[in-house]
Amino acid sequence: MRLLINKIFLALSILSAGVGLAFLAWILITLFMKGLSSFHFSLFLNDLIEGGLRNLIVGQMILAGLASLIGIPLGMTAGIYIQEYGQGRYAALIRDLSDIMMSAPSIVIGAFVYAIVVVPMGGTSGFAGAIALAIMMIPVVINTTDSMLSLVPRELREAGIALGASKYKVIIDIVIKAAKVGIMTGILLAFARIIGETAPLLFTSETSNYFSLNLGESFPSLTVSIYDLANEPEESSRDLAWAASFILTVLVLIINLTGRFITRNKK
Amino acid sequence: MPVMKIKKFSFTYSGVEHPSLKSITLPIEKNKITALIGPSGCGKSTLLRSMNRIHDLYPGNKYDGKIELLDFETGKYQNILEIKKENEFIELRQKVGMIFQKPTPFPMSIFDNVAYGLKIAGIKNKSELQDRVEAALKGSALWKEVHDRLDKSAMGLSGGQQQRLCIARAVAVKPEVLLFDEPTSALDPISTGAIEELIVELKKDVSIAIVTHNMQQASRISDYTAFMYLGDLIEYDKTENIFLNPKEKQTEDYITGRFG
Amino acid sequence: MEKIFQKLSLSSATLVFVLLIGIFITLYSAAKPAIDEFGLHFIINPDWNKEIVVETPSLRADTVANDAEDDAIADEDDMILDEDDDEMLLDDEDDTVTKTIYGGLVPIVGTLLTTIIALTFALPIAMGIAVFLAEIAPKNISYVVGIAIELLAAIPSIIFGMWGLYYFAPIVADLVGGYQVSLLTAGLVLGVMILPFMAAITRDSMNTTPAVLKESAYALGATKFEVIKDIIFPYSKVGIIGSIILALGRALGETMAVAFLIGSIFVLPKAINDPTISIPVAMANNFGEASGLGESALFYLALILFIISFAVISLAKFYFLKKAK
Fold first, then answer.
1. Do the Cβ atoms of A15 and C16 come within 8 Å?
2. DSSP alpha helices (H): ranges in chain A?
3. What interface predicted TM-score (ipTM) does this complex get?
4. Model confidence, pTM
């Protein structure tokens, strides 16, 4: 009887794992089939207005890149504060708040940036989009930095201090170096996460059919355009949306795998 | 009459070329304490963990030779290395219990911890469960300390108490053999003393094999001692012979502290 | 130098605090007009963007204001008159004004129901996957499948939405009937989306169970099922519940996976396969066009969503913290 229950349970577990994996395989296969059949290298050469994706891909990269420029230093220094300087309640509070912010609905972040940036500036802009993504990114970077620094053995810090180095020197030269790989991986994963975001960009950067480097106006975004294109009635727009999704997914997966690869190699 | 007979037993870990144990032949005598000693990496824990095949939780390991377990009912020996079916594994582990290096209280109450093995063995009768839990706790000298808080989490006990709880849990199912894998290495001297006393007490009812890196402990409590080195059994004899009059040079060097 | 660096890191940390408070204050002040207008009744009012007629008590004092308003209404009513609306004409004669009201009940209900459907669907499967990965599968399979699951958790949610709309929803609609865009399909796709995340973090929690604890249960003769049920689940219970709540928080705030499928209409669903709307989708689809009170009402919704998810996530945190001690 016990063995029967055991067998049934294990079978159920394997079955549900199978069902779950089948769903996920279904999505991936759909994405790759649809994406590859609509994919063409000319997509990289033309802008959306000419039926290509060039401006969108470049735009999305700029948005995510700029967000990283803002988010990484802020997130890292905040993480350093929590782990190295903060004592007691305040650091713990910041850590908790950051964790909460990490899971805050991304559309709400979008609404927040809309209210504080878009409305005062009088319109959507690439700048606003980058800020929204940076706000999404900061807590992730804090979390990574915090947990990676916590893995650095105490003795290492003490050894540095014992040599007469000041605390910030020890942090920058020793502790961060020791935790470098982990932090880099975390940042890559954070980047992969924001590059696929749509909701915070919908009413901050919006999107544009044209190539643009002007962050002061509506800015081309791959994800926002996917949403628009996918809702168009024409088959050709939808195909373009699939091709764009395919490119986006491949990009996200490559960044993710790179992150994993770095960590593994180090081990 | 030995309760277990290990015959020409070799063991190779999954993914490793060389065997960790090489052709070990060793009896585990009934109602006696057999100590396995030797320097780290000599294979004593590996041997112990073969004796209830807890190794099999991790696939790919290779066994060779025989480990025979006495069946008390029929008086015959069964080779436990031939076990393949799940229900036979369960039966084996109910006959050959194990105590680990660190205390392993389950995340449940003190009572449920001790009753756990009984419950999964199919005992549902409440009063019988209570009787046997009480007996096991008394048998492990823990009853006095915990009888008024049986429903409290076992996590609240001290390390030594937790280890005695684990012994009670193992004893409750009335095994034929108990395997102790360095049961006191994580404990303070006072708790260690209590556990040692308890182990000696237990041999009335059960045959014991204990892995220890503490030679004083082996000499204090065991009846037989096996000295192992680099996967070989170097010497096996009565404990006093091993400690006072070892036949092998390596044994002598080890117990006099010249290496290891 | 030391001081500067320390100050710098302190101010970055404080930024988190400022941002979070800033989000609250901004959302609140942007929602203020709607909060003042509708109060807490907003939460239970199912009407969104509905013109209602307000009887104005016959006031003699503020005739000037009334006149101005009446003019405006008269203009509007003229237009409606063209469409042959007798009632409005009558209202006009009765000296009335209309106003647009906004109620949040439909998106709030939509958000909660899609999340419940998603969790109901995802929870058993995610547990199955987690148990499979942590306890059943051989190491190398578990490793590969585990990575695959983690990668899937990283796939942008908009892709789940597209797949759901064009491939999954038609099948569901064939099976259960009803619309392709509905509460049910939106909830299920949301469930598929949170599945990898939930499975991955649940597996991580299960893996925290020390091997020696499992071994001692096996050493007592327990079966795998018993070890999972009696040792692993109780041991990692806190972590598993935390994982579930985090996944719940993610589902609550998810926009894109739901936006394609929920139908985006402000109508309370009568059946599980009716279309409706959720808070994030209401924001995504209406923010651009909204202005004035409508925009404020959307901020009100955003505030409600933020508070709900804040509470849910804090619960997860609080639960962790309380138990960890």
1. no
2. 2-38, 54-80, 89-102, 106-113, 119-121, 126-150, 154-162, 167-169, 176-178, 180-195, 222-230, 235-266
3. 0.91
4. 0.81
